[in-house]
Amino acid sequence: MNVLSNVIGIYLTDVCNYKCVFCSVDNPSKKEESIEKENIFKILEENKDSDYQAVALWGGEPTTRKDFFEILEKIKECCYETVIIETNGSKFSDLEFLEKTLSNGVNYFIISIHGANAQVQDAISLVGGSFDRTIKAIENLKERGIAVRTNTVVNTLNYQQLPEIVEMLIQKNVDHINISALRTIGNAARNLKMVTPSFSAVSESVKKAFDLAIGAEKSISFDVFPSCTVKGYEEYQLKWTNFKMFYGDKVVNDFARFTNNLKSKGAVCKKCPQLKLCGGVFRGYVDLFGWSEFGY
Ligand code: SF4
To answer: In this model, does residue 28 exceed pLDDT 70?
Structure first.
C-alpha cells in the first residue's frame, strides 16, 4: 500500500472546515469555491477510457463541496474502478453521510490524523472535537471493512507523540500508515518557525514509530522526508507512479517532479544516490535550518 499507480488526482476545493497550522494548501485563508463543477466533469469524461482507472479527490476538504455527491455520481457514471478520498474524516463520523459516500462508490479513504489525543490534534486543527470525529470516522470505516490509509504530518506540536499515534492506529487496525514531513508552503510558510521541527529533533521519534509498525507487520511509509534523514528506512518511501494531478484547469503530469520543484538541492545532494527519489529539501526548511543535517 505504499504504491498507488495510474491515479488522476482532482483538487476539488480550496475550502476546509479545519484550520491546520501546518496546512500546505493555505486553507484557512480560502472562503470561496474556486473550482468549477463543469471543469471537474470534463476531466472525468476526458480520462474515463484512459489507463487512469483510479480517481483521488483532495483539496481543501472535499466533503465541504455542496455538490460533493453529484461529483461522486459522475465518477460512478464514468466507471472508474477505485475512488480515493483524502479527507480530515470529520464528515465520516456521521453514519448517514458515510453510507451515502460508500454507496456512491468511494472505496479507499486517506484520513489525516495528527495527534494521539484531543489536546494535540485539536490544537493543530484549531477546531474543537476534531480528534473525536476523526477517530469515530476511522472506527466507522473499519467496522465496515473499508480500506483506510492515514496520513500524519510531523510538526512541532506532535513529533514527540508519533510512536503513540502509530500505536493507536495499529490498535484501530488501519490498513496503512503514512508519516509525512512538513511541506513548508501555504499556511506552514506563514507559521514556519512555530510549526517546523528540525529533522534531527524528530529523528528518534520517527524511527521509533516506524519500528513499532514494522514490528506489528503494519504497512507504513514516509513522504517528503529527505532520504538521508531516515537512513536505513529508505525502502519505505511513499510512491505515486503515474500520478496526474488537476488543479482547476491546470494539469500536473508528473506530481513528483512538481513537488521537487518546490525543493532545493545543496552541494551534498549533487552525487547523492537518492537524489531522484528525494529531490532535495523544501526551500523554507533550508532557510530556517541550513544544510548541516543532510547527506550520506
Ligand atoms: S543528500 Fe540531498 S538528495 Fe540526498 S537524500 Fe539528502 S537531501 Fe536528499
So the answer is: no
